[in-house]
Each structure stands twice: as structure tokens, then as C-alpha cells.
Amino acid sequence: MPAITYVLPDGTEKSLDVPVGMSIMDGSVRNNLPGIVAECGGGCSCATCHVHVDAQTRGLFDEPTAEETELLKFLEGADGDSRLSCQLIVTGKCDGIRIQVVDSSG
What we know:
The protein is an alpha+beta fold and 106 residues long. It has one domain (3-101): Beta-grasp domain (Ubiquitin-like (UB roll)), CATH 3.10.20.30. Helices cover 17% and strands 19% of the residues. It has 3 helices and 5 strands, in the order E-E-H-E-H-H-E-E. The protein has a 5-stranded mixed β-sheet. A hairpin with a 5-residue loop joins strand 1 and strand 2. It starts with a strand and ends in a 5-residue tail after the last strand. 29% of the residues are buried. The mean pLDDT is 95.
């Protein structure tokens, strides 16, 4: 399983083995990490799973859908590195990546 490092809102890091085919969001939620609320459960409708993904890592995932792009437009703190973690599906190439978690609880 690929090891994913979640950089949490308080700056601490947690590395988890996340199965291929699972979303970055699910990896966080199933391990009770803070920051990713995931109110819609991965339906790409609430934007409470906001993360930042660096340019190098971005290429490992599919391009954002129109729905994701629309949600990100209105999200406070969103920038060019912003993605919704429910839309980031882990592949074997994801081993060792770092995901910056934005606190979506507020």
C-alpha cells in the first residue's frame, strides 16, 4: 500500500498506508485525522475535504472535474494547489506523497 503523509492543520505529520483505489479523504477519515470533515461523504458537494497538493504531486491524479472546480472557486483559502481530497484516488504511484490538510471544521 502506498504511504501517504498528511500534514495536519497544526503542522504535525501523520503517515498512513492507504490502499490503492481509496481516496485521500477516506484515508484520513478512516484514521480519524483532524481537518478533513467530509460532510458529504465523498460526493463532491460540500468542499469540507479541502487539501493543498504541490505541483509535482498534482500530476499523479486526474484533473479536477467541473463540479470540483466550481466548489473550489468559492472556498476561502483556495489557491492553485487546492483540491478536494474526495476526488484524489490513490494509485501505486502515490507512495511517499505529502498532502497539506486544510482545517475544514470551521
